[in-house]
């Protein structure tokens, strides 16, 4: 009961309040955390596993794309994925420069178009390199000409199979180029509020650096959502033994025709004797009668054979196999 005041203590407090000796401090108000309304329409539509799988897919694409560009442009090129993020389509479009190369791709079984964006710096560097010019830092402040767009279109069509190869462990796709736009306002593939996955890749062509982006709308990926997991990707490789596609390829290889040629040893004859040859002349070969011929499969020597006749036709009989070490 120590907290209960006595009557004398109460009288002392009242007297101090009356004389002004004691002043009550104002009560400090604690700041309340503001309440923010949550809009369920703005929730993330891509979960982490899908983002991770898209990163793996386009890591493969970046590796293939680097090899392709290095061979095509005859200069060292390097490409890597720097981010995979979810944005609204309007946010992505607003961040694009103008002019820009926007390739609209048909990407079945994805239900809808896909956008492939090349920054002006990289586009002009590729064009300059293909035309034999010197690549310079910074893109010229002008629009693309019709000839430049045709060159870009040709390059795009050549590396479209790289998309197919990078997706093959997830799902079999086919990719085709619909059209190329240079202004973002003419590339409205989905509504402005539609969530999209943006895969951003950094690319270096020689000393020129820039970015390329791939825009995958959520609606387009709905058809393959169940496959967008790394567990599915590593457990369902398309090249496994027993896979129908693998067996189909093996069957085609077994029935592929090859040119087979039986070759005598080389014979060296002066040009004057070749020019004097006429029908009925006999040319002496530098090949002994008992020596086997070489059977060429395509352009490679594979077998030693003996010359003979079968049913009134010239024929050869395989004597032994030419191994790789011997052919080298």
Quick overview of this protein structure:
With 328 residues, the protein is an alpha+beta fold.
Question: Overview of this structure, please?
Answer:
This protein has helices spanning about 5-20, 50-75, 90-95, 120-130, 145-160, 160-165, 220, 230-235, 245-255, 270-275, 325; strands at about 75-90, 100-105, 115-120, 175-180, 195-205, 210-215, 260-265, 295, 300-310, 315-320. It is an alpha+beta fold. The chain has 2 domains: about 40-245, CheC-like (Chemotaxis protein chec, 3-Layer(aba) Sandwich), CATH 3.40.1550; about 260-325, Surface presentation of antigens (SPOA) (Roll). Strands 1-5-6-3-2-4 form a 6-stranded antiparallel β-sheet. It has a 4-stranded antiparallel β-sheet with strand order 7-8-9-10, with no helix packed on it. Strand 2 and strand 3 form a beta hairpin. The longest helix is centred in the first third of the chain and has 26 residues, at about 50-75. The protein is elongated and about 145 Å long. The chain starts with 6 loop residues before the first helix and ends with a helix. The model has no long low-confidence stretch (mean pLDDT about 80).
């Amino acid at each position: 009961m120590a907290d209960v005041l006595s009557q004398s203590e109460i009288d002392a407090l009242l007297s101090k309040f009356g004389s002004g000796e004691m002043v009550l401090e104002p009560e400090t108000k604690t700041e309340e955390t503001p309440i923010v309304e949550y809009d369920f329409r703005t929730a993330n539509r891509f979960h982490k596993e899908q983002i991770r799988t898209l990163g793996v897919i386009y890591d493969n694409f970046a590796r293939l794309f680097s090899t392709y560009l290095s061979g095509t442009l005859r200069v060292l090129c390097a490409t890597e994925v720097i981010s995979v993020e979810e944005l609204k389509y309007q946010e992505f479009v607003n961040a694009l420069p103008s002019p820009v190369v926007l390739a609209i791709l048909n990407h079945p079984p994805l239900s809808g178009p896909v956008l492939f964006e090349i920054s002006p710096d990289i586009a002009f560097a590729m064009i300059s390199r293909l035309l034999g010019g010197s690549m310079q830092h910074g893109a010229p402040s002008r629009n693309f000409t019709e000839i430049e767009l045709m060159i870009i279109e040709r390059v795009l069509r050549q590396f479209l199979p790289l998309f197919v190869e990078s997706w093959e462990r997830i799902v079999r796709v086919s990719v085709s180029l619909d059209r190329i736009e240079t202004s973002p306002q003419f590339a409205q593939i989905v509504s402005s509020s539609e969530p999209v996955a943006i895969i951003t890749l950094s690319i270096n062509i020689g000393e020129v650096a820039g970015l390329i982006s791939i825009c995958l709308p959520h609606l387009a990926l709905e058809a393959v959502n169940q496959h967008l997991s790394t567990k599915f990707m590593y457990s369902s490789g398309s090249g496994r033994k027993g896979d129908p596609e693998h067996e189909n390829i093996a069957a085609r290889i077994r029935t592929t025709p090859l040119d087979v040629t039986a070759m005598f040893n080389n014979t060296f004859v002066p040009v004057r004797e070749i020019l004097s040859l006429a029908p009925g002349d006999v040319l002496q070969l530098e090949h002994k009668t008992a020596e086997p011929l070489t059977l060429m499969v395509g352009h490679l020597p594979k077998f030693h054979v003996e010359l003979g006749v079968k049913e009134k036709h010239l024929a050869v009989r395989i004597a032994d196999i030419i191994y790789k070490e011997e052919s080298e």
